[in-house]
Design a protein that fits this description.
The protein has helices spanning about 5-15, 65-80, 145-150, 160-170, and strands at about 20-30, 35-40, 55, 60, 90-95, 100-105, 120-125, 130-135, 140-145. With about 170 residues, it is α+β, with helices and mostly antiparallel strands.
Length: about 170
Amino acid sequence: MTTRPNHALQESSQSRRSRVSAGLLMFRRKGGTLEVLLVHLGGPFFARKDEGAWTIPKGEAAPDEDLLTRAQIEFEEELGIQPHGNWIELGSIKQKGGKTVHAWAFEGDLPDSFELKSNTFEMEWPPRSGKLKQFPEIDRADFFAEEVGRRKINPAQIILLDRLRERLDQH
């Protein structure tokens, strides 16, 4: 019989708890059209993917961390700009891999001088090469008209667009 060391159990338990992310969905109204800001994940796995491969800017939250604060921090880390505005609670969704994403929306725009300044991550690439390579967490950020955004966004996050539309239609 094989036993798992205690630290392996703790890591397994921790990884289940940390399957919670928090993010922000920036939107703007342009010419009567609702546009949403989505980001494209960096790295080799997403390099050739487009539809369904975009997401709201988000990141993992620690247990007991304030989720709106984490969402704001992640937005700034991924885009290089500090978000501000009236936060619209969009609730949470569960993605295909089991991650729960809590989201808020706010109306805003990127400054004219915007240049993407994402954090980076390191991974072995190509696989089994023994070479570590740096990749941006986010390699693109763009506004999309709502209907286009629905095709671009991770399918599990479409409900966030539905909830945003519902909240905006109420006001």
